[in-house]
Structure formats: structure tokens, C-alpha cells
Amino acid sequence: MRLFNKDKKASLQLSINAIVILILAITILGLGLGFIRSQFSSLETQFDKVSDNIQNQIIEDIQKSGDLLSFTTLTFSGIKAGTSNPLFFGVKSTETQRETCFYVQFVCENAIGVQCPVGSQMSNLANAPTEAVPSGWNWFDTLQGSRVETGTVKVLKGELQALNAPSATYNGRVLVWKHFIDVTTEAATNQYEDCITTEINNWPKIKKKTDNTAVSGTGTQAGGQGFIHPAITTNDPAATEPTRTVVLHDSKEFFIDLI
Known about the structure:
The protein is α+β, with helices and mostly antiparallel strands. Helices cover about 30% and strands about 30% of the residues.
């Protein structure tokens, strides 16, 4: 009988110990999850703060310099093929009466010891090569058709991801285009206010208007008084008009050191 009682007490003691251990494990797990959650929350808050700081810095740079375009960096050093490299930039509108749409095109001008990647030069991008993407050079990706209010600065995020290219230093230029009205008609006004937000199939083949009709065709649009203007086009069936007359708003030179 005493042996039975001892076994019963021992079993009870083991059960109590097991319950205590279980409670402690659940408590520790809860504390751990709470700590992890607080860390993620802290990181998210910190990320928002950094994003705000970047935006404020870009706006301040544009206001102080008087420039129309500002980047967090224009020299990309030690870039590895296939890796994602975020970038931020701001565009200032000089319009005084209406909002306008801006488009950001990246082009390769030359590369030391190698050729510019296929489909990355301005002459190629006017003819819709299969390698082209909404940002022109397929190493870059950013939002297009960004509507900017009169006299304000809009900060946008982009991404550089070098693809299928040999190690070299690449020299390029970012061109920022904006809508342009050459003739004051209702159709022109409607076209001006309608941003292209889908894939751009043809980028401009000229940087400024010309009276040389020999350059007409894809990447241009005829305007008033016989001028030929830069233009972008889309094959989006939902677009009311596939072509937009544009004018060069500003441009910046950049360098990529691909290792």
C-alpha cells in the first residue's frame, strides 16, 4: 500500500513538473514572439523614417540648387549583375497652370572596353526593340506617367538591376520627358492630361523639336508650323490616343561600375 502511495505521489510530482515546464515554455514563447513583433514594428517605423528623410533631402536639394531633377546617387560603384539596387529621385514641375505627366528614360551612351547592351541606346529605343521595357534600358525600372502638381516636387523610387552584361564602366543619361501641347485644340488638351501608365513601346528618337521632316516617323510627332516633336507611344488598347507629344524637361549623366 505504501509502495502504491509512493508511486502515486511520484506520478503526481512528475505531472506537476510537466505542467510547470509547459507553462514556462508557453510564457517564454509568448515573450519571444512579442519581442520579435516589436523588433519588426521598430524596423518598419525606422524604414518609414528613412524614406521620409530621403524624400525631404531630395526636395531640399532641388529647392537649394534650383535643379529640376535630383537623384540620391548618380554613380553606382561595385554593382554586381543580377542584384537589386534601389534609387530615389525627385522631379520638379515648372508648370504654373496645370498638372503634367513625366516619363523617365534611361539610355546608355558608351561603355569602356565593351558595347552598350542591346536595346539600351536612344536610337534603338525609338524602334521598340524586344529588349526595351517601360524605362527604356532594361537595367532600370521605375514608375511611368507620374502626374506632378504645378510647382511641386514629386519623389519617386526606381531600381537598377544589371542583366547579362560583362564587367565594365557604363556611362549613361537619364532623360525626363513631360507632356507638351503644340496646338491649342480639345484633342491636344485631352492628350496632354491623359498619362501613359502602361508599357511605352517607342521612346523619342530626337531630343528637341526640329523642322527637319526627314526625322519624322516612330518616336516623333508632327506639330504646328511644320515642326517635328519628340514623342512616346504605347500599344495599350485602352489608351484614348497612343501617342504623346513630349518635351525634354531635364537630364542627368550617370555611371555604373559593373563588377
